[in-house]
Amino acid sequence: MASPHASPSPRAPRPNTVFRELRGPRSPAEFAAAVRRAAREIGEQVSCDARYIGRVESGEIRCPNYAYERVFRHMFPGREPADMGFLPRETVRGRGARNKGGAPPAHTESPADDGDATGPGAPGLRDAGAPGLGGTSDEESDVLRRAFMTHGTAAVAVASLGGVAGALPRRHAGEAEALAVEEAVRRIRLLDDRHGADGLYRRATRPLRAAYDLLDAEARRQSVADRLHTGAGELAISVGWLAHDSGRFADARSHYAEALATARVAGDAALEAHAFCNTAFLARDADRPREAVRAAQAAQHVGRRLGSARLMSLLALREAGGWARLGDRAACAGALLRARSLFGQGACEADPEWMTFFGEAELEGLEAQCWSALGDRSRAAEHGERAVALADPHFARNIALYTAQLADDLAHSGSPDAAAAAGERVLDLLGQVRSARIRGMLDGTSRTLRRFTQDPAVESFLARRAA
After folding, report:
1. The pTM is what?
2. Does 287 map to a domain?
3. CB environment 330-343: b (16+ within 10 A), e (fewer)
């Protein structure tokens, strides 16, 4: 029960219908991708996703930070923030906004993207210093603010949750803690997209432990308890994926099982489908193809009630991957056909936030893996080439993965020159991306190409790979 002495609740946010109209027919995930592309065009870096777009449209974010403002001005030339449905900055941020009525201001996106907030007195930094943690204590905000200002984005994934949970007692969990868990999930996913898993896994286990500690704290509202369970489960999946991609299969299996148990306890069908989806992927890579098929089918059974054709498409692809490893060409082809049909239904509001990576490039990449497992390397290479061509530059790890798969398929289909060229591109990307899975694929390609060492391109690639 809330304290009778608590400050009055602020009024519910007013939806930003103007911004919703600017989005048009695109889904939140598609629009978020457009925002990221626009940011790159002007040299900005924002971690926009479907959840951010939802927060803007719901009115939770009443004024964007400076980086987002510049991106939105670039996307909609001639429009001022007010013309996009936003409130003036001075009414939302800073001392004046905080002192009106005693309620904290509406959230803005993390100042990790806000280059104008450069010091302790910068407008709104006290409230926005923790990633999405309006209402945190001064001690918590100071920890997170220092992480932003001295270590950048990489530290925030840990500091946003583990950096404070280990130092402060947790008897109650509220909105701030739920937001911290959700922000940790977003940060880890963003870093994995850009850099791969190897350097992240050990650090990411700390916020995961803190998230599960919060589940034992008293939550005064059921909505907060539900968000904490969902956030902790999604964090377990994200950390499990980091273990998976860095070759720690036993750790990944444990994290996915933890997420599945959390989903069952919370009665969260979306989280359960996600946990089964990743379990199927892991089982395929761990050479347990029948388990991969069963897990993917279980995910589809749960996922049907969620209303997302794109989710069902991905789950059909997970099933296809299991059938391919079993050598069942007919079952695999049937699942691939179903996946393409579902994908063709388009994106929708029901698509989960974590599926922002699943576009046409991923569809092609996963199909390439299926044909490769079935031994049809030429067909796999055709899909692999399309995956590389269609890939969003934001997903550097996926580009490296698609290109590594393509190099291996080209090497096995009698195109050593093209395979070596693709391998060279992967080596270029490995300066940015750290993934044991991708390095392992490249090692296999290198072994296949050793019989073509008389080819100068192959010899150059092998020498560079050895170095």
Report:
1. 0.65
2. no
3. ebbbebbebbeebb
Residue 263: per-residue pLDDT: 95
Tell me which amino acid residue 300 is. Answer: Q
What spatial distance separates the first Cα and last Cα of the chain, rounded to whole Å?
A: 63
Tell me the residue range of the domain where 82 lies: 7-96
Q: Which two tokens stand for residue 393?
A: 């530059």
What does the pLDDT read at residue 194?
Answer: 62
Phi then psi for residue 171, to 5 deg, are -100, -25
**One-letter amino acid identity for 453?**
T
pLDDT for the residue numbered 433: 79
If one counts every other C-beta atom within 10 angstroms of the C-beta of residue 135, the result is 15
Amino acid identity at 233: G
| Residues in the chain with pLDDT values less than 70 | 1-12, 89-171, 192-199
Residue 181: how many CB atoms within 10 A of its CB?
28
pLDDT tens per residue, range 264-310: 999 999 999 999 999 999 999 999 999 999 999 999 999 999 999 99
The answer for residues whose C-beta is within 8 angstroms of residue 414's C-beta and 6 or more apart is: none
Boundary residue ending a domain (228, 248, 267): 267
Residue 178 is predicted with a pLDDT of: 82
- Concatenated DSSP letters for 54-89? HHHHHTS--S--HHHHHHHHHHSTT--GGGGTPPPH
Alpha carbons 357 and 193: distance in angstroms, whole number: 8
Is residue 422 situated within a structural domain?
no
Domain for residue 11, yes or no?
A: yes
Residue 274: name the closest of 228, 223, 235 by CA.
235
What is the Cα 304 distance to its own chain's centre? 22
Tell me phi and psi for residue 34, to 5 degrees: -65, -35
